[in-house]
Design goal:
Blueprint: H1 2-23, E1 28-30, E2 43-45, H2 52-63, E3 68-70, H3 75-80, E4 87-89, H4 98-115
Antiparallel strand pairs: 1-2, 3-4
Length: 116
């Protein structure tokens, strides 16, 4: 379990660092800023630039990357934060690789370039 936890931390750090470096203030990552204080997943606010449902569909079509989009069983939280179209949520586990996280970030950047 310690190896799995360490792998999850690596994936979380890769994702958070990559999102910050590539998107800066274009997106908002909900939850703790420190990757070591979170699971290897993130609810990402796309700040109304792109619909998270469309991004999830494009990720599937472009790279077979499967993401959740919407309210993730936290409707009241999303509405309180004025996230009325929901968020995008990648989640990673022991069967995922750092390369897959990087492909997710690169593909998200490609989608932003096309749609914004």
């Amino acid at each position: 379990m310690d190896k799995i936890a360490a792998h999850e931390q690596l994936l979380s750090r890769t994702m958070i660092t990559g999102l910050r470096e590539n998107f800066g203030n274009k997106i908002r990552i909900l939850g703790p800023e420190d990757p070591d204080e979170r699971a290897a997943l993130a609810a990402i606010d796309l700040k109304g630039q792109i619909n998270p449902h469309e991004v999830a569909i494009l990720m599937d079509e472009m790279q077979n990357i499967f993401l959740r989009s919407g309210f993730h069983c936290t409707h009241a939280f999303h509405h309180e934060k004025h996230l009325d179209v929901g968020t995008l949520r990648p989640s990673w586990y022991l069967y995922n690789t750092v390369e897959e996280v990087n492909i997710f970030i690169e593909t998200l950047q490609e989608i932003f370039d096309i749609m914004t």
